[in-house]
Each structure stands twice: as C-alpha cells, then as structure tokens.
Design brief:
Blueprint lengths: L1 H17 L7 E6 L6 H8 L1 H11 L1 E6 L9 E4 L2 E6 L6 H26 L2 H6 L2 H10 L6 H26 L1
Parallel strand pairs: 1-2
Antiparallel strand pairs: 1-4, 3-4
Helix pairs in contact: 1-3, 4-6, 4-7
C-alpha cells in the first residue's frame, strides 16, 4: 500500500506542477526501468490498484517498463518516474480580453500618476516616498514613453496570443 501511496502522491504533485485543473482527468505514464522498480510495477499490474490510482489521482494510468523519455517533463521518485500528458489550451478571445483589461488598468494608473505629479499642491503635501512611488510608475522618456508603454503592452499581448495560436495549431 505504501508503494501505491507514493505513486498517487507523485501523480498529484506532477498534476499540480503541470497546472492541470483539479477536476480534469488526464493521461499519465509511470516508467519503471530498474530492478528496484519491479516492486512498483508488480503493485501497479493489478487492475484494482490501477483503478485506485486512476480514481484518487484523477488520471488514466499507463505503466511502462522502460526509461522515461529524456525530453519529457517527469517527476522522479525512487524506483519510478511519473509523466502527466497534458497540453494547456488557451482561449484566445478570453486571453485577449484579459490583456486588454490589463492595458487599460495600466494606462489608467499611469494617467492618475501623471495627474498627481503635475499637481503642485499634491507634491507639496505628499510624503517623499509617495512621490517617489508615483515617479517610479511614470515612464522614463517624456511624452513619447506613454506611447511606448502602450506599444510594449501590445507587443507583449501579441506575443502571448501568437504562442497561443501556434500551440493550438500543433
């Protein structure tokens, strides 16, 4: 039973590391390659134990009697390796909306900071650390920097969306 607990714990840990949503069932592989892993493979050969791992770790388990692939993301334990087969899908319209809201929030904060820094009454009354904080928000290169900040945010958004579209097409 200890071996099954180790496998389930490794599967759950790997699920969390990969970022699998809690209720989603994904494919998983347990790699058993050396002599010590024969005990693990023997425990996982039974259909009841595989069903236990599948239900408690929310996976469809496959046991492989070989080394884990070199280029895959695996969680290594003593005697076995665990791999979760999961590809995160990105909803492009939702991601675009989120990034657009981020840009609007940034621009709003930037406008407020510029307005406060342009107010002499505020500057005379505000503590120096507040003024320094507002100045750190303000772009460093004068009037064109607001445009550059917007451009940078758009480039960042397009880069993320480009990766999302590329991964969807694969």
């Amino acid at each position: 039973m200890y071996v099954i607990q180790k496998v389930i714990t490794a599967l759950r840990s790997q699920r969390k590391d990969v970022g699998v949503p809690e209720k989603e069932i994904v494919n998983a592989k347990v790699y058993c390659a050396d002599g010590e892993s024969s005990l693990i493979a023997g425990c996982l050969d039974s259909e009841a134990n595989q069903h236990l791992c599948n239900s408690l770790a929310k996976v469809k388990l496959e046991v492989k009697f070989e080394e884990a692939p070199f280029n895959s993301l695996v969680h290594s334990e003593t005697g076995f390796d665990v791999e979760i087969l999961f590809r995160r899908t990105i909803d492009v319209p939702v991601e675009r909306n989120r990034l657009t809201k981020d840009i609007a929030k940034y621009e709003k904060g930037l406008a407020a900071a510029e307005r406060q820094l342009g107010n002499a009454a505020f500057l005379s009354k505000a503590p120096p650390e507040v003024v320094l904080g507002l100045r750190s928000r303000k772009p460093r290169r004068g009037c064109c920097s607001t445009r550059r900040a917007r451009c940078w945010m758009r480039c960042r958004r397009n880069k993320i969306l480009g990766r999302a579209l590329q991964s969807r097409s694969e």
